[in-house]
Amino acid sequence: MESNEGVKKIILVVDDEPSILKLLNFILSSTYTLVIKTSGIEAIAWLEEGNDPDLIISDLMMPYFDGSTLIKNLKISGFYRNTPVILLSGADDLEDKVKEMPFKIDRFVEKPFNPTILKSHITQLLS
C-alpha cells in the first residue's frame, strides 16, 4: 500500500549498459519513477543532493566505481542502510560474489534477466 495515493515509488537504477537501461525503463517506468545513473559516482552525487530512493537497482560490474563499492558506501553511510538493493550482474559466479560481500544484498538477479521475475522482486521489496 502506498501512503500517498498516486505517488510513484522512486527507483534509482545504476548501470553502464544502454541496452539494460532501455529495458529497465521500458518495463518499469509506467509503475515507478526511475532515476537513471550510468556510474556509481553519478549515483552517489545524486544521493548526496538529498535524494532518497525507495529502492536501488545496481549493476555489479561498472568501470571506476562498481556496484559493490557503491552499495558498500551506501550501507556504511547509515542513511541508506535500510534501502532495499537489487544487484544485477552478468557474472558467472554472482551467488559466490554476493556471499563474500560484507553487507546485505536484498536480491540479486543474473543478466539476462526475466522482466517478470525482476518486477516480482521489486514488488516484494517495496511492499
UniProtKB/TrEMBL annotation:
Residues 10-126 form the Response regulatory domain. GO terms for biological process: phosphorelay signal transduction system. It holds the Pfam family Response_reg. PROSITE patterns: RESPONSE_REGULATORY. Keywords: Phosphoprotein. SUPFAM superfamilies: CheY-like. The modification 4-aspartylphosphate is found at residue 59. PANTHER family: RESPONSE REGULATORY DOMAIN-CONTAINING PROTEIN, STRESS RESPONSE REGULATOR PROTEIN 1. This is Response regulator receiver. It comes from Pedobacter heparinus (strain ATCC 13125 / DSM 2366 / CIP 104194 / JCM 7457 / NBRC 12017 / NCIMB 9290 / NRRL B-14731 / HIM 762-3).
